[in-house]
Design the sequence.
């Protein structure tokens, strides 16, 4: 029977850390990762020094970068505010004109309205340019519950390793659910749809379902960027659309140049965000897979023998 | 030195995988974030062009409509034109701000130094494997070309390129390093410090064991007893994701190293 933590905490904790660093590893990472809000910076802008040989001449527009200094007001929302304000004036002007509106006025107002719509959308586009726009995973998976299950066959060092590894996967990427498989299911963490009858042994329930899925016998790195829920896999939590499976033998063979050995170990990451994992994410997850699956824990049968 | 499980292999800057083909009847999901990331230049220029065109259209509309070029507040046409021009100016200015903050594409620099791999001999096997894993992962995934880990005044690891002294890689003077302003500042703040353009920082002389033309450095505190110095070959080369992963690796290394006892010997 596995140790199961509901809503965040594994009991008892095998991990002890300074200032609760590693004990924090057992906490559930926040899925609502706040995107970095961009604030317009104060002039002057840091200019390239003469040592920068790659400097190219460009127009200095730092004078346009300013801040209103209004507490609680994000300066990047200024175009939206101005767009709404001027749009309201434009509409008001139209209705105050009277019965007859000239064609020229109509044209000016249409151009103005197009700029209003564009101004209102600029802050959202700007946020995406700065790397924001992340989806709150928890809100898109309302039926799922946070779990953290580790196999009891693991040593305390292995539990610490898996606790850290799954924690950073959920924190540093858009993964919402993680499974670590090494001969059998040794760890499941994140948002999962666990029926009440399976609450006593989550790992056993999940292992049985995973064994039946075609993904289990894949053997190759498999990335489904979107519509993973259309594959008909019963183990997928509701709302999951992206799936990444990394076999450990593949990951290790890529780095060592050796032929991949057939081992029954893989790392499975699921996400509710389409195209959740970009090239950089895949590389980091691959290296994490190498670390997490380098040891083979005892199977349940070996423990019972 | 113990046999390490990770052998050096060819760097894999990209990753290929088998993508399950989408249902032929369904279209691929359009990801706005990815589209904007791929078309960064177009998106940044778009407001300037749109606002500029709007500006010209308003002027042209007024010119070719036979309206006298006089700003008359009592005229609804003039008011509409003024508001439209102000809106166009707002869009243009936002576009210019986006263009001014557009990051220059980083160019990697060939660092001048000597390859080395030094490990503290007193490290147990699991700590050695973890430290080596951290180095291999950082080197393969990011622009890291040198990694130094100092813990409790001992140089736990010096890997990658180092500055040269008499044909050998310069050793890390850990006692001076931890007394220096860079380390002290990092420990005081308890946060990662990212020196994105190292040549601009006067304190770079404390890191004289790194290649002289190191471009960027991430200083990651390992609790309050250690520091991890990740040096890269590209200005602003460590992205947000890299910094987050470096922070996570630092936490794990701190948890592992605090259980170790260190000797004074270093194995090369």
Sequence:
């Amino acid at each position: 029977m596995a140790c199961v933590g509901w809503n965040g905490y594994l009991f008892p904790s095998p991990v002890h850390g300074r200032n609760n660093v590693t004990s924090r590893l057992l906490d559930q990472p926040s899925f609502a990762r706040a995107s970095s809000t961009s604030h317009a910076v104060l002039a002057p802008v840091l200019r390239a020094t003469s040592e920068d040989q790659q400097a190219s001449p460009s127009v200095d527009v730092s004078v346009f970068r300013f801040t209103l200094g209004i507490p609680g007001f994000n300066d990047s929302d200024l175009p939206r505010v101005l767009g709404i304000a001027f749009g309201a004036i434009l509409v008001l002007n139209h209705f105050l004109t009277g019965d007859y509106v000239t064609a020229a006025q109509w044209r000016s107002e249409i151009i103005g309205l197009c700029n209003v719509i564009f101004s209102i959308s600029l802050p959202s586009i700007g946020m995406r340019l700065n790397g924001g726009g992340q989806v709150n995973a928890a809100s898109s998976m309302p039926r799922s519950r946070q779990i953290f299950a580790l196999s009891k066959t693991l040593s305390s060092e292995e539990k610490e390793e898996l606790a850290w590894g799954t924690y950073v996967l959920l924190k540093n990427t858009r993964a919402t659910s993680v499974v670590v498989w090494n001969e059998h299911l040794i760890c499941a963490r994140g948002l999962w749809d666990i029926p009440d009858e399976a609450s006593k042994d989550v790992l056993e329930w999940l292992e049985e379902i995973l064994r039946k899925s075609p993904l289990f016998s894949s053997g190759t790195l498999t990335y489904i960027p979107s519509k993973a829920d259309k594959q008909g896999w019963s183990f997928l939590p509701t709302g999951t659309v992206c799936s990444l499976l990394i076999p450990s033998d593949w990951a290790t063979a890529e780095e060592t140049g050796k032929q991949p050995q057939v081992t029954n170990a893989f790392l499975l990451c699921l996400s509710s965000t389409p195209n959740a994992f970009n090239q950089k994410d895949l590389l980091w997850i691959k290296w994490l897979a190498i670390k997490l699956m380098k040891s083979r824990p005892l199977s349940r049968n070996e423990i019972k023998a | 030195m113990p046999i390490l499980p990770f052998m050096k292999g060819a760097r894999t800057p990209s990753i290929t995988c088998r993508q399950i083909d989408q249902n032929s009847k369904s279209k691929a999901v359009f990801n706005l974030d990815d589209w904007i990331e791929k078309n960064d230049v177009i998106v940044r220029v778009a407001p300037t062009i749109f606002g500029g065109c709007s500006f010209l259209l308003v002027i042209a509309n007024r010119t070719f409509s036979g309206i006298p070029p006089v700003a008359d507040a009592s005229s609804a046409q003039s008011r509409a034109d003024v508001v439209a021009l102000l809106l166009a100016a707002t869009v243009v200015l936002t576009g210019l701000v986006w263009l001014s903050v557009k990051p220059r594409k980083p160019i990697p620099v060939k660092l001048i130094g000597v390859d080395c791999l030094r490990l503290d001999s007193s490290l147990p096997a699991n700590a050695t494997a973890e430290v080596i894993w951290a180095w291999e992962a950082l080197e393969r995934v990011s622009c890291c070309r040198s990694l130094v880990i100092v813990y409790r005044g001992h140089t736990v690891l010096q890997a990658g390129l180092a500055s040269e002294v008499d044909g050998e890689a310069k050793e890390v003077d850990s006692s001076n390093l931890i007394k220096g302003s860079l380390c002290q500042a990092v420990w005081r703040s308890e946060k990662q410090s990212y020196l994105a353009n190292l040549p601009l920082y006067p304190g770079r002389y404390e890191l004289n064991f790194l290649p002289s033309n190191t471009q960027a450095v991430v200083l990651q505190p390992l609790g309050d007893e250690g520091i991890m110095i990740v040096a890269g070959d590209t200005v602003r080369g460590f992205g947000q994701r890299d910094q987050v992963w470096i922070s996570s690796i630092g936490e794990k290394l701190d948890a592992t190293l605090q259980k170790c006892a260190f000797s004074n010997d270093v194995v090369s």
